[in-house]
């Protein structure tokens, strides 16, 4: 049997969503449930894919099926296309696997032609209505199917209105509308060189093709990328008999949810309009009424609708979003689907459905999208205060949340103000690693330059601080400590507010509300923890981060970067002294100054984490990042360090790298300067011993060696670490356990993971770097071409946000298999930013990682995503 | 049975080279042949590896075997260690699988102590000789085994000589030597805190350990890296009874080759000294005699030696390098091995041995090291002229060969002088891509800055031009057009000569002699071509390179880079115009100017190559490489292009990349600017058609898309290329064939090669980039730490010179297998610099590539290496 591409609503059901799209499958399901649905058929998503494969034509076998369905449709509805007394009219609507509202095209009133318009007039007894439909259909078809500029039709309409001296479309007479139809049809000939198609079947086939094409229009591509929808899913097309809500006072149309989509409250929630078509409800020309008022207007219809709504919610075990039309006192259901809802509503509905005994815990948590939680994890503006506020500029929504504070123009001033208890927004042209201290301290960060992957954006997301980047409308003069926006000049200490979820910047103080993980959120998270098998750790570099992460449920630290610690003002001099040291002695002396500082950091983190595991990564970035680049700063440093300026300048320029990403960093630093690794190992072990003795907290530090590509390199550094650790243990006379492992972030490490595992007690996948090196482009530079790649459909999503499973994932899988072959009990985790992204978390579960680690604010997302992954895997059996 | 670690010479043979080292295996073989060899035993290379594994101790089981061998040795020689009348004395010598002359330690006269010295005196009747041996032994043992500074012993010796008022050691009396022995033994106590060891077996065990340790001394590590010798081979140690060539006028010692190692001529070639020890032949205090003179001195011994030499050459079927000693009229063989020889001698010997019917063609070519040929492929100085010359400075030997010419200080002047027929040396502080034209034109390149991987060095090696880089002793002032070296000032047009094989720079003109591939070279190459199964292509960007490569036997072009063509002075303006274009129209207009230039290049190359395949790579480098970076140059360009300076400056700084290696380049350029690929595809196809019509040369151009990481990216660019090609073919009405394929140089491409092969008709492995991305370090930056990596034994060889088979090679293998799975007839080649390195060529053969491609000057090396690989693979069955 050859493949079937066209299904009548009566031939399908809700389980066929992948083939028929959400709308089509649900129309079929409602038909099967015996609900009043205008009948029709669905061209499958496979028909769409065939259309593209066959070079944007519908193949003959599919056309044949289509004609067969069409004649069935005429039979079912007992109407004929183009009939002069009771013509069959249809709507043509897209319908992908998941809803992509407004992204693709729709055509209504299809089937009208010079004969059928008369039939419609006769049927409705309303000639004006019939011609109004016809002129709308001509315009819609010409626009959507033939790509004729809509404005040209609007012009003709305006001409007639002007000549008639009327203002509204509704003031046009039947004759006016007939004239307009005539003009429209003539315009069609002018544009297309042929008559407006009179054959309804031809109209329909062309419309279907246009909907298929709209799957690939630019806004659909962008929407898919934003929502991680694969391009090869394709869209189905639904052809459905028209019903009219605008046939008089016993007709109407509306939309409703079975629960409040903002709060999740269990009440029928929606709007309707009598004597109106669907568009009118949305268009806002007339004010729709609350659905509850329908009870008074049409009590029987209302009761019928409520019964249907209950039935549908019970049937789907989820809150439904429905569209209906009433034609001359008869109710028709045009759509139902699981309704979109806010994060808060999603949680409440999940909890309520469990309480109502409709869902199990596992079923309930599958109803909450992990990604959605993000909105609940950051401070937000007080909604009342926000109502009055108007943004004065808009930048990129670089890191979510809302913040309000006094502006400061450099990291030092910002940090100082925070010390004094101020709320602070750090304002910079762009940030650099030297600004870290101020970035950590500030409540929010605003930059006028740099994109979504700029330093400011990346760091802010990592630490969960709200950030608006690349806000070019604001002119910042750092040396004057001023910024100008919307004609106003702001000085240091002035209040502004920023929203990192929208990119909006406000020239005033707007109070914020902190995030809370209580109530429904806590309940759902509890269920998620029951369901998941993978641990969730956090990336945290400070006790403050660690405490926040524990509040969000982190079970350990998967990545504690040690370099940020060295950027702080009281530490960077010793760091710089270490870097410019000319002899081993000098370097060891400088490292000696850093040792107590590192110990203090580690003790704080151990105390915050209790006995949870803590993975500490040895120094990673190239050393030049710690040195000043501007002559003035170099002069200052030379003076402080008592080195001639020229000498220091030469040292710094010798540290310059052509490709810092591929330079002298990671474990390479420890190979050339083992004394750095020695100092860090000493700090890690000494502080663990001290915390064990002083606080009775006995953790097992995991020492992580970064950027390893070859086993001998790992072994060299590991030997240094172990020798130091054993020495410290002997000195202190206290035995503690520790692990030594490595990041897998260089492709060669993944490929030779069987060897690497001989030395590594754990692997942590650094998928940021692994992505850069596997693809061969750096995050900082890829911005120059990634947009072109999205537009040309080469990539569908940002591989830095969503793990590239086909390439990078294959490396991860290879490393997991090779690593386990050598060391079956090797501990495996991920600490790249992917550790907090749902599809990547699922991948990590499926390849068998022990844990994911992500920034504190993504921990709840990862917990829920890990639960989803475990449940899906279980259900797949 | 437990493993055997110690072998008597009588227990082994030549096939055991891996286990016993070359020296040990050959001593055993000579023993088996019945030749007069002082007997002894060999501690195996596995004993050396055990020594390291066990933490630098010799395990008890091995010590036991050692004692057993020792007592056998006493029996065989009928002498006892420490005997007071006829003591057994031995030499202790290292011996790895391949000869590493002078890299490891040797100890002679071992077994002497206070008793044995008297025995030796009695035996030889020469007390002075005995004490001279003893004091030498004490010093040698203390230095080599105990690491006591040799200079301290020399000082004591000098003291005694001063007090006695003598000048030469030979003037010291027996009593003086006894005094010295006394002092030496006291010094040993001072340094070691214990007596000089009197027990010969202890002396011996410590000496063996010292030789094992010497396997890992820094000069041995460097030697191994230079000669691609794996660190895990280990060295064997040979313990052999001493014989003395210094026992009077019927004693002597010498070294000889069965053929002349410089020319290959078939004559016994060597030197000897009567009444001398081995060291004296080399030391140069007395002038050794030609081996032929031995015929007069000791005719019987001479005849015996000649007979042995003939026997050994016949036995090994190769030229032998032998050491012998005559002790009181008896000949002893101390060593034989296949002798090192010059490239010219290697070729002559190979050809002669075939003519003498001793070797087959295949056996003969296995006797020639591919790498060695390099010396024959570049111009050299006229040896007579060189004798008089003294270098005035020395830089890095960056690209081999010799050159002589007038100096010019910028590329433009250099190119202009070449046009006028001058011989030219381009002298620069350092070179940049803008200098390409002058670099191509010059006979040699000299820079005062930059290392072995600087722009000058890399480009020069690629085009086979002699280059000395980083010659810091020379001060160059480019704007004055002067350079100062050794106190002399040179001006534009003055003659100098440079040797890129040694790094020497001469302040005068030294005539050069061109390389020739005639005579023996041609014969051996012919045999190599018979034996090999893999094709050898060349990387060539110009007709000049192509012609040179064909002379060297290239069978096609594996990589024609198109970017160098754009750096030429008459072209770069159009290129820059293209880059700074603000609209598609402007860019297309600028590309229109480049089209005829590209066509001219391609036609020249097609004509030079005849119908051999030519792979042309589309534009690869980031665009900023074509733009000036200095303000003055930008100003000039702004003026030429009639753009405001600020605007151009901003454009250029917007093109800046943080990691250019991982930036907007390769096929990414064609995705963002498909019109560039269109122009290049048009140029490739139009010129192929024109050459087919005008010259009747019908090639099949292979269009190569670089830096692909994802099939959709390849497909996008391929679609542009194919559409253009088909359009051109339709326009011209001439059908020609062409292939479209890709570089595999991004790890993700290797991993997803099954997908990529759906679109690619060929793969060419770009192992330079693949190495950078797999290891995660860039060639330009790795210099900062690679030396530390070699010193710490993390890497043994430069992965950019020798393909890393374990990591990068695994990616290549994976891609080969995946690619062939999808497209069984896919054409596979390599075009990284590894394509001309012997071990990498063998790897390419073994994984089944169709061809390797390398720079023209490496083509003969690759041909021979491919032959070696084919023969080795055949013999492995």
Describe this structure in words.
- Two copies of one chain form a homodimer.
- Chain A has 877 residues and is of the alpha/beta class.
- Helix content of chain A is 46%, strand content 16%.
- Chain A has 34 helices and 31 strands.
- In chain A, the strands form six sheets. The first copy, chain A, has an eight-stranded mixed β-sheet with strand order 12-22-21-14-15-16-17-13.
- The longest helix of chain A has 26 residues, at 584-609.
- The first copy, chain A, is elongated, with a radius of gyration of 32 Å.
- The first copy, chain A, starts with 5 loop residues before the first strand and ends with a helix.
- The interface between A and B is large, with 48 and 48 residues.
Largest interface: A-B, 48 and 48 residues
* Main sheet record of chain A: 8 strands, mixed
Radius of gyration of chain A: 32 Å
Span between termini of chain A:
29 Å
Q: Given the structure, what is the number of helices of chain A?
A: 34
- β-strand number of chain A: 31
Q: Give the oligomeric state.
A: homodimer
Strand order in the sheet with the most strands of chain A = 12-22-21-14-15-16-17-13
Proportion of residues in extended strands of chain A: 15-25%
Low-confidence stretches of chain A: none
């Amino acid at each position: 049997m050859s493949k079937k591409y066209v299904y009548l609503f009566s031939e399908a059901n809700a389980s066929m969503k992948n083939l028929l799209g959400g709308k089509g499958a649900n129309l079929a399901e409602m038909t099967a449930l015996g609900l009043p649905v205008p009948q029709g058929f669905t061209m499958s998503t496979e028909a769409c894919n065939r259309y593209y494969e066959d070079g944007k034509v519908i193949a003959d076998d599919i056309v044949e099926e289509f004609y067969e369905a069409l004649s069935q449709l005429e039979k079912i509805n007992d109407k004929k296309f183009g009939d002069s007394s009771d013509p069959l009219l249809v709507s043509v609507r897209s319908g992908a696997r998941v809803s992509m509202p407004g992204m693709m095209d729709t055509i209504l009133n299809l089937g009208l032609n010079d004969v059928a318009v008369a039939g419609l007039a006769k049927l409705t007894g309303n000639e004006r209505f019939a011609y109004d439909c016809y002129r709308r259909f001509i315009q819609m078809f010409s626009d959507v199917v033939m790509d004729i500029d809509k404005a040209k039709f609007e012009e003709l309409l305006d001409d007639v209105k002007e000549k008639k001296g009327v203002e509204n479309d509704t003031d046009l007479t039947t004759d006016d509308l007939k004239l307009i139809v005539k003009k429209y049809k003539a315009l069609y000939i002018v544009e297309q060189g042929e008559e407006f198609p009179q054959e309804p079947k031809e109209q329909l086939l062309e419309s279907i093709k246009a909907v298929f094409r709209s799957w690939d229009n630019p806004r659909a591509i962008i929407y898919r990328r934003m929502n991680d929808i694969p391009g090869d899913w394709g869209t189905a097309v639904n052809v459905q008999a028209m019903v009219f809500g605008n046939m008089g006072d016993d007709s109407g149309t509306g939309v409703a949810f079975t629960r409040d989509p903002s709060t999740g409250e269990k009440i029928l929630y929606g709007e309707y309009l009598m004597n109106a078509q669907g568009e009118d409800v949305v268009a806002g020309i007339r004010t729709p009424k609350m659905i509850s008022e329908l009870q008074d207007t049409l009590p029987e219809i209302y009761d019928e609708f409520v019964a249907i709504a209950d039935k549908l919610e019970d049937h789907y075990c989820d809150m439904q979003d429905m569209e209906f039309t009433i034609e001359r006192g008869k109710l028709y259901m045009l759509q139902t689907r699981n309704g979109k809802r806010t994060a808060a509503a999603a949680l409440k509905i999940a909890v309520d459905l469990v309480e109502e005994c409709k869902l199990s815990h596992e079923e309930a948590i599958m109803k909450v999208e992990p990604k959605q939680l993000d909105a609940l994890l950051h401070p937000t503006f007080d909604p009342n205060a926000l109502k009055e506020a108007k943004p004065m500029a808009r930048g990129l929504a670089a890191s979510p949340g809302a913040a309000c504070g006094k502006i400061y123009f450099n990291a030092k001033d910002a940090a100082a103000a925070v010390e004094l208890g101020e709320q602070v927004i750090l304002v910079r042209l762009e940030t650099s690693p030297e600004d870290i201290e101020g970035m950590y301290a500030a409540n929010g960060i605003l930059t006028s330059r740099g994109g979504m992957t700029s330093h400011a954006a990346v760091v802010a997301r990592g630490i969960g601080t709200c950030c608006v980047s690349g806000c070019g409308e604001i002119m910042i003069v750092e040396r004057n400590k001023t910024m100008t926006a919307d004609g106003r000049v702001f000085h240091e200490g002035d209040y502004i507010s920023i929203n990192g979820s929208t990119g909006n910047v406000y020239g005033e103080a707007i109070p914020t509300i902190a995030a809370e993980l209580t109530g429904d959120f806590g309940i759902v998270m509890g269920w998620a923890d029951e369901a998941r098998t993978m641990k969730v750790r956090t990336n945290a570099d400070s006790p403050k981060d660690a405490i926040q992460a524990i509040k969000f449920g982190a079970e350990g630290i998967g990545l504690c970067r040690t370099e940020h610690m060295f950027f702080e003002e009281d530490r960077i001099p010793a760091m710089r002294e270490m870097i410019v040291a000319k002899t081993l002695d000098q370097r060891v002396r400088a490292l000696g100054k850093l040792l107590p500082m590192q110990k203090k950091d580690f003790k704080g983190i151990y105390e915050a984490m209790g006995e949870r595991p803590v993975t500490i990564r040895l120094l990673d970035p190239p050393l030049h990042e710690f040195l000043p680049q501007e002559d003035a700063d170099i002069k200052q440093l030379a003076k402080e360090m008592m080195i001639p300026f020229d000498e220091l300048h030469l040292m710094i320029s010798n540290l310059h790298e052509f490709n810092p990403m591929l330079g002298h960093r990671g474990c390479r630093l420890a190979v050339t300067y083992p004394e750095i690794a020695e100092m860090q190992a000493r700090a890690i072990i000494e502080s663990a011993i001290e915390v064990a003795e002083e606080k009775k907290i006995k953790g097992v530090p995991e020492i992580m060696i970064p950027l390893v590509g070859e086993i001998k390199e790992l072994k060299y550094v590991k030997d240094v670490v172990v020798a130091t650790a054993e020495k410290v243990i002997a000195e202190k006379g206290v035995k503690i356990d520790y692990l030594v492992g490595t990041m897998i972030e260089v492709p060669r490490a993944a490929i030779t993971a069987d060897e690497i595992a001989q030395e590594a007690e754990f692997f942590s996948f650094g998928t940021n770097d692994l992505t850069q090196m596997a693809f061969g482009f750096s995050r900082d530079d890829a911005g120059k071409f990634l947009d072109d790649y999205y537009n040309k459909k080469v990539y569908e999503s940002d591989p830095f946000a969503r793990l590239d499973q086909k390439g990078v994932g294959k490396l991860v899988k290879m490393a997991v298999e090779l690593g386990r072959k050598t060391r079956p009990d090797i501990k495996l985790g991920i600490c790249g930013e992917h550790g907090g992204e749902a599809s990547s978390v699922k991948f990590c579960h499926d390849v068998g990682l022990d844990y994911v680690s992500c920034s504190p604010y993504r921990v709840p997302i990862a917990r829920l995503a890990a639960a989803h992954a475990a449940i899906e895997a279980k259900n797949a059996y």
